[in-house]
Amino acid sequence: MISLSTQASGPQAMGALRAQRLLETIGCLIGPASAASLVAIGHLGRLSDVALFGAATLIAGSWLQRARQPLHLLAFSGVWLWALPPLAGAVVAGAVCEAEGVQGATGSLALAVAMAWLVFLLGAWVTVRFKDERQIRLAVIGTADYADSLAADLGNSHLHGYFLAGRIDPQGGGCSEEAALEPAGGVPGEPGPRGEVSSIGSLADLRQIVRSHRIDLLVIALKPGPQRSEAAETVVGECWDLPVRMIDGTQFCEKTLGYVPLGAADSAWFHYLMHPSYTAGWSLSKRAFDLGFALMLAVLSAPLLAVAAVAIKLHDGGPILHRQRRVGEGGREFTMVKLRSMLPDAERDGTPVWCSSDDERITPVGRVLRRTHIDELPQLWNVLRGEMTMVGPRPERPQLVTELEGQFRYYERRHLMKPGLTGWAQVRCGYAGSDRGSAWKLCHDLYYLKHRSIWFDLLIVAETLRATVAEVQTELECPDERLIVGDGLVREAVS
Questions:
Q1: Is 286 exposed, middle or buried (0-12, 13-18, 19+ CB in 10 A)?
Q2: What is the Cβ-side half-sphere exposure of residue 142, based on CA atoms within 13 angstroms?
Q3: Which of 232, 312, 433, 449 maximizes the CB count within 10 A of its CB?
Q4: pTM of the predicted model as reported, rounded to 2 decimal places
């Protein structure tokens, strides 16, 4: 993202981007830390302990606010993580008080933490309400197809604080001031006469469009080349003194929506894999994480597996386990094991068939196992063997992989990682169920390939456990096919 000057005056002097960030910082970080410090002052008495508590809380919260992980997309982890900064402050201050023999510090700090949480809940509620009222107004510089797809995806994602005001045509002549003020389609961001996002003018009138439509963020959705470079230069040249920012369309989806839109990306996106600062390592810590978590889950889930095995056997007398060949890291095949959740003859002719959440082949017992993800637990054995990892892309069958690699470019690059028991695509998209669904999950798998870390793995595991306990089935609606696939990414069938 290119940072531009914000020296404008008037009602647009503080854009929605800056206003939302400022309110979130005050309401979710500074406010709770200040309230907790005030409570601590009244009980601890010593300003040094209070200052230590407040500083540790602010430092932990600042680190969390700048985390690379998409916390705004994590319904469970993104909330409880904000409870950690006051706890971190209390632990640090409590350790010092304990070392110095201060009496009653534990109770005082507990009261301060409770006050911080209360203020945080209030600040989070105010922030969400403010984002609904003071939305970030987007304008897409690109094709009508991309603008339509992005508008639909923003609606499906249910994110607070974003409004697509319209599309700016990168070509064509200028438009009058009246045309820039009143979009051709009627209401900005709403479908025009043919169902598309309304055009609000051309690049020649960019400055007037930004001012009249109060645009906060320009999304450049153009392929790399002279036209994109010219559009970026126009933005910088015309809007350098306005409170507006610009971002590449692929970067916007990656940063805001948590996936890589293959329909708008190209091979240049993968250049980071060859960058000197990129490391695909941390294999030792990843392996330690896998072994520790797999062993713990295996011990805890042993009674559940025993009950599930008896239920499967009593239902139809068929086999308890179901073994399938799957494709793993580097394209190598392995045998994945899981509890059988379908009829014994679900695939009589051996041809792979996509499975959906309401598949008629699923048994009553299997439906419960799938809803609670208990059917996947035997894959802990694959994790312990090193064929799978706790978090990664879900492995597919060789026949389906061959078909998908023939349809979608970049599909084979998900095999740069070990397949996982759960993954970012799993918690965001649920079951694939179709070729299009697999492409949608591929967009998320590639996002994980770039942003993976042990910390991100912990958040994904927490989301998975929450879905298992609460029996929540994720079914995030796919955006328009042009955004997740694109005409240029569908391979022609080879005769």
A1: buried
A2: 24
A3: 312
A4: 0.83
Nearest to 440 by CA among 253, 256, 163, 196: 253
Q: Is the pLDDT of residue 489 over 60?
A: no
Contact 446, 416 (CB under 8 A): no
Contacts of 176 (CB under 8 A, 6+ apart): none
The whole-angstrom separation of Cα 79 and Cα 385 is 34
User: Taking the mean position of all CA atoms in its chain, how far away is CA 21?
Assistant: 19
Sign of CA dihedral 377, 379, 383, 384: positive
What is the 3-state secondary structure of the chain?
CECCCCCCCCCCCCCHHHHHHHHHHHHHHHHHHHHHHHHHHHHHCCHHHHHHHHHHHHHHHHHHHCCCCCHHHCCCHHHHHHHHHHHHHHHHHHHHHHHCCCCCHHHHHHHHHHHHHHHHHHHHHHHHHHHHHCCEEEEEEECHHHHHHHHHHHHHHCCCCEEEEEEEECCCCCCCHHHHHCCCCCCCCCECCCCCECEEEEHHHHHHHHHHCCCCEEEEECCCCHHHHHHHHHHHHHHCCCCCEEEEHHHHHHHHHCCCCCCCCCHHHHHHHHCCCCCCCCHHHHHHHHHHHHHHHHHHHHHHHHHHHHHHHHHHCCCCEEEEEEECHHHCEEEEEEECCECCCCCCCCCCCCCCCCCCCECHHHHHHHHHCHHHHHHHHHHHHCCCEEECCCCCCHHHHHHHHHHECCHHHHHHCCCEEECHHHHHHCCCCCHHHHHHHHHHHHHHHHHCCHHHHHHHHHHHHHHHHHCCCCCCCCCCHHHHCCHHHECCCCC
- Considering only CA atoms, which of 468, 446, 248, 256 is closest in space to residue 374? 468
Residues 131 and 160 sit within 8 Å (Cβ to Cβ): yes
Query: Residues 71-130: pLDDT tens digits?
Result: 888 877 877 888 888 888 888 888 887 777 766 677 778 888 999 999 999 998 999 899
Question: Rounded to whole angstroms, how far apart are CA atoms 217 and 12?
Answer: 12
For residue 1, pLDDT beyond 70: no
Dump pLDDT digits (tens) for 61-78.
888 777 778 888 887 787
Taking the C-alpha atoms of residue 169 and residue 205, their distance in angstroms, rounded to an integer, is 10
Cβ atoms 36, 89 nearer than 8 A: yes
Length of the chain: 495
Spatial neighbors of 407 by CB under 8 A, at least 6 apart, are 435, 439, 490, 491
In one letter, which amino acid is 489?
L
What's the CA gap between 204 and 226, in Å, rounded? 16
**Please, what is the angle between helix 398-407 and helix 435-451, to 10°?**
90
- Percent of the chain exceeding pLDDT 90 equals 28
Q: List pLDDT tens digits, range 209-224.
A: 999 999 999 999 888 7
Are the CB atoms for 259 and 449 separated by under 8 Å?
no
CA 438 to CA 434: how far, in whole Å? Answer: 6
